[in-house]
Amino acid sequence: MTGPEVTGPDVTARPVTERPVTEPDVTVIAVTYSPGETLEQFLTTLAQATTHSYDVILADNGSTDGAPQLAARTRPEVRLHATGANLGYGRAANAAAALTQAEWLIIANPDVTWAPGSLDALLAAADRWPRAATLGPLIRTSDGDVYPSARELPALGTGIGHALFGWWWPGNPWTARYRRQRSARSEEAVGWLSGACLLVRRAAFMAIDGFDPGYFMYFEDTDLGARLGHAGWLNVYVPAAEVTHIGGHATRHRPESMLAEHHRSAWRYLSRRYSGARWLPLRLALRCGLALRSAVSRAVSARTASREPQRGADSTPPSR
Prior knowledge:
Spore Coat Polysaccharide Biosynthesis Protein SpsA, Chain A
């Protein structure tokens, strides 16, 4: 897949400081890192996903392919916010969220494509759930499979079982319980929703200071769902809304380092959940177990990549 012809920053791209005259119903935030042609698909299908007013802020973490600059130059609804460095997903989204007063935010990866009416379906569900802080659609993979995007918060036993067995035995009961794969899914409140595509109530998001900036990538959505729930809000799965997520647009550049980042984020989440002297032995066991799993996963990934170079980022953890 080839990207746009533009190969570098474009000084004519409309900067984020140019605020709209009136705030739209929704501000769509896409965190970009050389997204290539996927960004154009994201923006084109977004226009068919809603009848509400919206604008788009591209929180760009240092793209070198020119795609975000091209979009901001050629599309009047798009503004560019250059973060100045690769800040990670959550910090970039937080920076963009501070630049709008819209009631609702969409925070999404730029390699998402929208089904017609999908954003309107999320907004309609928000009217039915006045205590919802986040609402997430049904997410399909590029193969058409349903991705487990609505999950329970990882309990200790479930989390350990999923961490130990999920990467080599996908059908194990702990992973199935964590991903809620063995139950029929309907519109309902869940523990957390995938950050690949989220409708977010801005007031609730800002009240808890958005994503924890300590997560570079992975688990920032899990942590967000947990903190919103603790603050009395709900996270609601809305399968009537549907998107497709290609996945790996950012992680493909450095798959082995992203595996390490996945385990670092898992440690941050679990160690903060089980803090204090009482849980010290557990934290030590988790630290050792995650370090071993990270080393084995990276070795397997490197070995697989050397044998099957065409797979690229397929062996990395899911991008959200």
